[in-house]
Amino acid sequence: MKIIYSDRQQLHCVPFEVLGGEPTPNFEQPQRALQVLDALSVRTSGPVLPPSAHGLAPLKRVHSPDYVDFLADAWNQWQATFPGKAVALPFLFPNRGLRQRLPRHIEGRLGYYAFDLSVGLTATSWSAIQDSADCALTAADLLLAGECSAFALCRPPGHHAGRDLMGGYCYLNNAAIAAQYLLDQGQQRIAILDLDYHHGNGTQSIFYERSDVLFASIHGDPDDEYPHYLGFADETGAGEGVGFNLNLPLPLGETDWSRYRQALDSAIERIQAFAPDTLVISLGLDTFCEDPLGEFSIKSLDYLEMGRILGGMGLPTLFVFEGGYAVDALGNNTANVVEGFEQKG
Ligand SMILES: [Zn+2]
């Protein structure tokens, strides 16, 4: 399986975030991607290829044009207003009772386009964000050219990013961009299976009223887990999209592989019935038992079986890398999924 990766993705490095009411070293660190790259290079068939530039047009098929233009220029606006301040960070949001109006000042613009505090931007973030999306698009090109699978080693991740919203370490929704691109290139139906521990609220919201993209997600119950305000089982789609959104929230602290596998079987059954041209897998490894941001108890060897099950679906498959913060185990766990997939796929 070819792996798409760009070194420029290392350029996004926000030193801190706010967790539990305190400034904390950022869990979404560049080292994550290097660990995965090393493990995939050694353990899977490879090779590792750089992304090709696709420009802004495919991004604007999923995100609003004003949001993409904002991301590309946000650092310049920040620097002009706050010279010498290394991280552009939102800190207020147009919540209930406030107007949904894009203000002129950068601090108002950051809040308008964000839903949490995890999405800082530095001088070099945009290069990494754009290359991350290009990794997904380049992997999609491989599938269009007839490859049966590809792995987009995206960083920063994407599945929390909505049409005009960043949050949860995510800026551009790499999986959604790839899915829309495949449709625009002539495919008819895309299934997105989101296996990150957190609900893919951005992906769901982007395709919620669509019947050409099936979104299925297995994740920690949002009553008790981030992103809290989306991801419940009764969200099944709207308008033309009714029946094309499947949320399978699972309880924190009680979800081991056997329980997870039952949910995975349900998702796979729905995906097989949908008969997609391509399966896009938002692959987050924060379901791991030692993940600092997760409360599931999936073990390293379970990921081998997960990969075999995913490969056994027999669908053209595009892996898009999402979360996973137990850095020392992240490479091994990711490689287990891909190795299992290649054994069965
Ligand atoms: Zn996650």
TrEMBL record:
Family, as annotated: Belongs to the histone deacetylase family.
GO molecular function, one term: histone deacetylase activity
Classification via Pfam families: Hist_deacetyl
Tagged with keyword Cytoplasm: no
Full protein name: Histone deacetylase family protein
Entry cofactors: Zn(2+)
UniProt KW keywords: Hydrolase, Metal-binding, Zinc
Residues of the Histone deacetylase domain: 28-339
Classification via CDD domains: HDAC_classII_APAH
InterPro entries attached to this UniProt entry: HDACs (IPR000286), His_deacetylse_dom (IPR023801), His_deacetylse_dom_sf (IPR037138), Ureohydrolase_dom_sf (IPR023696)
Biological processes annotated in GO: epigenetic regulation of gene expression
SUPFAM superfamilies for this protein: Arginase/deacetylase (SSF52768)
Originating organism: Aestuariirhabdus litorea
